[in-house]
Amino acid sequence: MLTQILIEVIQLLIVGLGAPLLVGLVRRVKARLQGRRGAGLLQPYADLHKLLAQEAVVSETTSWICRFTPYLLAATMLLSALLVPLLTTQTPLGFLGNIIVLMYLFLLGTFFLTLAGLDAGSAFGGMGSSREMAVAALAEPTVMIAIFAIALRAGNTGLDEIIRRGAADSLLLLTPGHLLAFMAFFIVALAETGRLPVDNPATHLELTMIHEAMVLEYSGRYLMLIEWAAGMKLLIFLALLSNLFFPWGVALAITPFALAVAFVALAMKIGALAVGIAVLETAVAKLRLFRLPALLSGSFALALLAVISFLFVK
Amino acid sequence: MPDLNGVARQLRATALKLTDLRVYPPREVRLNIERDEIPPFAEYVHDRFCATPELIVAEDTRAERGTFTLRYLFELEGVDLFIVASVAVPENDRRFPSLATRWYLASRFEREMHDLFGLLPTGHPDLRRLPLHQFWPAAYHPLLKDAPSPPAFADDGTPFPFHRVEGEGIHEITVGPVHAGIIEPGHFRFSVEGETIVNLESRLYFVHKGIERLFETVPLIRGVELAERISGDSSVAHALAFCQALESLTGLQIPPRAAYLRVALLELERLYNHIADVGAICTDTGFAVANAHAMRIREDILRLNARLAGHRLLRGTLIAGGVRCDFTAEQIADARETVRRAVSDFDDVVGIALNNGLVLDRLHGTGRLSNQTARELQVVGPAARASGIDRDARRDHPFAAYADLPPHVPVYSEGDVWARLMVRVEEAREAAHLIMRALGEIPEGKVSAPLPALPAGASGFGLVEGWRGPIWHWLVAGEQNRLARAKIKDPSFANWPALHYAILKNIVPDFPLVNKSFNLSYAGNDL
What we know:
The complex is a heterodimer.
Chain A: H1 2-33, H2 43-53, H3 64-83, H4 99-119, H5 123-154, H6 159-168, H7 176-192, H8 211-214, H9 220-245, H10 256-283, H11 292-312
Chain B: H1 4-12, E1 18-24, E2 28-33, H2 38-49, E3 51-59, H3 62-65, E4 67-76, E5 82-90, E6 95-97, H4 104-117, E7 120-122, E8 170-175, E9 187-193, E10 196-203, H5 211-217, H6 223-228, H7 235-250, H8 256-284, H9 288-309, E11 318-319, E12 322-323, H10 329-354, H11 357-363, H12 371-376, H13 381-386, H14 393-396, H15 417-440, E13 459-466, E14 469-477, E15 483-489, H16 491-502, H17 511-518, H18 522-526
Parallel strand pairs in B: 2-5, 6-7
Antiparallel strand pairs in B: 1-2, 3-4, 4-5, 8-9, 9-10, 11-12, 13-14, 14-15
Helix pairs in contact in B: 7-8, 8-9, 8-15, 8-17, 9-10, 10-15, 15-17
């Protein structure tokens, strides 16, 4: 019992404390790739700390949704942290939900964030919300199909089970369906976490924003919660990509040594993916908004091919 | 090709009531016309000489002549000639016929006069306020010589009467005047259908600071300082236009070495601004790596500026009669080497950006300004050259040493963001080339000539092709070596309306990119 609680606490700490570091890492690598020195890896912690200390200004015209949403976002991400197998396939609370529950937890946050964007009644929030919903509507089918592709292989939608089956299959990475599903899921992860080429997290141009436009009205501790939750979302997505598709190092049994190995492996996998995102964001430009359907339907096609290949290529 | 005397002869032969027609070699014909003759005269010179009214100035000359004076400066296309038509408007009947329905640019000059002088253009379809915001007292016209010191007033919240687009699914997005980035203030009102822009109106003049009136109050010696501050990124171009206007007004010839140094200074300004613009356009497509390097190269040139002239933006380098700084042989070698390296790096950055399909996809076809619209709005500068208008004051009306160093003028016909980017890329390379030539072929000698006292009542103009386009300064000398009137036209004044047309049928998230491809000055427009 104590071990199980300990594992869940460790998971919370990894997600909660690791998220700003991950954001700092992506920014730092991007800066280096652009030939800039960039801020230190720990800068996001300082930013969050600064926001926490600042006064939160809330528009008088907003309803409870505006104040509720930041807490909900942080809460859904922390809850997800309890469900996702980060270090071991025996996540104590894993029985509470499978990958589908996880995806819809994310969507719950998105739903409230779009409501919050509309809440203050500013032009930018409305724009951001309408764009976010368009992107979500396009990304959602891909998420489901990509999940089915993985679940079909494992014969189960449980995250632990998917990883356990993956770890047992040494030829996993050579399966075409596996790679197709990875690519589809990677594109969706970029869209869901507001990265280039879908959304530009570094822009100051209100008119081009998606995620940032929805949170323009926020300040102080509310903004801190939203930024923190966005970082956690990125970390959880990268952890899922790491462990579902490259299940190396994940502890199959709970021993201190196996957990330590799992931690190092997870850090390396997420670090590699973060560098990959930074390289990608340096190499691409932001897509024109009306080209996003092409990108996301492309990822849908990849996911569909992944499902088909699991049915035919055994 | 008409020459100066040929133009004068043809004008004399017309049935229009022209008086006092005089030829001012090498390039001006001046005349007076009756105010009712303005529209037929403008139509005549347009049909006969392809001349367009590029600058319209009002002067409060009631003390000297008992009337207001309007000046219409026509620029002839393809030759280095100008026609300056002066019109008297009596004090007790301040009406004059409007050119607004024929030339859009004229309609904006007339709105300015309406606000600042209380002159009334008859037949003007849109006399909403332009430089003065709604809360200014109705009867207060700040450029009148007898205007009292401004009454105390504050923004009472009176809204500007924007055009309203109505229809199912149309909604308005208001942006500014305060923006998220560190840029100047301006209010934009989009009417959109979904994400597609069906109308854009902008309300500027939040930084209207009465700089034209300031020129009348400061001692002449400080005029250059003031001109440098009209639009900070065009310090050299504005100061040069001011100096040229004074030199034209007094008939002063500058020494050849000064002319070459002026070319070098103006092209340095063009170079660092164009490089920054190329980077900024890339960053608005989300391709930040190009911007990071463009900013580094710009910084190299700014530091070179500081080494050459003691100021990063090259302020304090120009003076009426020449230049205030001279370059040593070591400085020239340093400049040539730095510029050579900067352009070589710039070529690498451009190569990387323009080999990226995603960047190109954002640039091509975005914010298209057709040649016809550009001509009708009298768009100028790189934006005009990207829409197929082959005009450049450096080549068409050579000043400084440009007669000896004629620039290559790039012209594109696409009119989209890509074309405006390409014009800038080519002009940056050409600027470097011109710096090399100017510094390589620079003659020895003095760098300035003393400016004689200003003959009261004399007037003259300076025309400079800055990096943003042609800058006009019209100066009138007053008593005691002061200026009686300074009228400034920054290219932004002509180009802001073009943005409203270029953005139509584009989507809202592409607006920052289109806006950046024009990169217009708020300060230069608002004056």
